[in-house]
Amino acid sequence: MPDLLQIRSLAKRYGESTVFRNVSLTLCEGEFVAILGESGVGKSTLLNCIAGLDTVDDGSVHIAGTDITHLTEAQQAILRRTQLGFVFQAFHVLPHLSVADNVGLPLLLQGRPDDTRVRTLLDAVGLAALAERLPRTLSGGQLQRVALARALVHQPKLILADEPTGNLDPETAERMMALLAAQVREHGAACVLVTHSQHAAAHADRVLTLRQDGIAP
Ligand SMILES: Nc1ncnc2c1ncn2[C@@H]1O[C@H](COP(=O)(O)OP(=O)(O)OP(=O)(O)O)[C@@H](O)[C@H]1O
Asked: What DSSP element (H or E) covers 55?
C-alpha cells in the first residue's frame, strides 16, 4: 500500500534547545498510530511540523509523496486544504461562523460545499441540534467535537489529531474515537493521534512514545 506519511530523521529546535531529533515514522493507507509522551516532550510540535505549520531543522516530511518541508507557504496551504484534517488541541474554530459553517469550511475552501455531508458529520458527533449556534455558546467538549467534525468532513487522506478527546466524558470519547477509526479504516486514510489517554490510544494499530532522541514503541 502507498505511504501516506513518511517522516525521516526529523529534528526540531527552538533556539539552542532541542525539542526532538531523529524522529522517523511511516504510515500507509488505513494505518492509525497513537503517539504518547510526557507533557512538553514535543508531541504538538511534531504534528505542527508534519502539517507545515512549524519549521523543521533537519529531516523531511512526505505527505502522499510530496515533501512538505520544500514547498512554499502557499503550496503548503493547498496541500493542507486538500490532504489534511487537523484536530487542534485548542480547537481553532472561527468565532464568527456557526457550528455548521465551521464544519463545512474545508468543503467550501475546496469549492465543493455540501450541506448533506455537514449534516452527516454533525449527526455523527452529536451536534445536529446546535448547528446554527456560535462557538462562544458551546462547552469545551462540544467545541472539541466541532473540531473533529471539521477535520473529517472533507475525507482527508491524513488526519492529525491532537488530544481530540481531552475534554470529553469517557462514553463520548469512545464514540469519537470509533468515528475517527472508521474514517481511517473504511476510507483508507491514515491518522496520527497524540494523546495522554490509554483508552484513546487503544484504538490505534501502533502505539509509539516520543522522546527527545526519537520515537519508538
Ligand atoms: N514557539 C515556541 N518557542 C519556544 N519553545 C516552544 C515553542 N512552542 C513550544 N515550545 C516548547 O517546545 C516543547 C514542546 O512543546 P509541545 O507543546 O509540542 O509539547 P507536548 O508534548 O505537545 O506537550 P503537552 O502534552 O503538554 O501538550 C515545550 O518545552 C515547549 O515549551
From this structure: none
